Amino acid sequence: MTAVAAPVYDALGDRNRLRIVIRLCEDGPKSTSALSESITRQAAAKHLALLEEAGLVRSEKRGRERIWSVQTESLTAAADYLNALSRKWDQRIEALRALVERDQD
């Protein structure tokens, strides 16, 4: 599972890439030029290529533009991994709580 999640977390660790993914999630598919409002088009293209490599976005060619959309499968897999870790920690904390309460009796 970490092999799937690690590239996603790495890609989302950059502020610009995270903004791009959030924007695509909120607004739907966008062109490269529409996603490059706060950064250069060349920088946007590099960020999008890395996001695509991580499985977070995909593109399709429409005329002279590339239209980008979110790949929810990668986001879901990364979220599932974090949820599994959270459940493990919850179980450990609950076991510790039970142990402390037992020792107090």
Output the number of helix runs.
5
Shape: elongated
Low-confidence stretches: none
CATH superfamily: Winged helix-like DNA-binding domain superfamily/Winged helix DNA-binding domain
Q: What number of structural domains do the residues give?
A: 1
Element order, helices and strands? Answer: HHEHHEEH
Class based on secondary structure composition and strand pairing: alpha+beta
> Mind summarizing the main beta sheet?
3 strands, antiparallel
Instruction: Tally the beta strands.
Output: 3
GO molecular function: DNA-binding transcription factor activity
InterPro entries: ArsR-like_HTH (IPR011991), HTH_ArsR_DNA-bd_dom (IPR001845), WH-like_DNA-bd_sf (IPR036388), WH_DNA-bd_sf (IPR036390)
Protein name: Transcriptional regulator
Organism: Mycolicibacterium confluentis
Overview of the molecule:
- With 105 residues, this protein is α+β, with helices and mostly antiparallel strands.
- 70% of the residues lie in helices and 13% in strands.
- The protein contains five helices and three strands; from the N terminus they run ααβααββα.
- The chain is elongated.
- It comes from Mycolicibacterium confluentis.
Write the topology of this structure.
Blueprint: H1 2-12, H2 15-27, E1 30-31, H3 32-35, H4 41-53, E2 57-62, E3 65-70, H5 72-104
Antiparallel strand pairs: 1-3, 2-3
Helix pairs in contact: 1-5, 2-4
GO molecular function, one term: DNA-binding transcription factor activity
InterPro entries: ArsR-like_HTH (IPR011991), HTH_ArsR_DNA-bd_dom (IPR001845), WH-like_DNA-bd_sf (IPR036388), WH_DNA-bd_sf (IPR036390)
Protein name: Transcriptional regulator
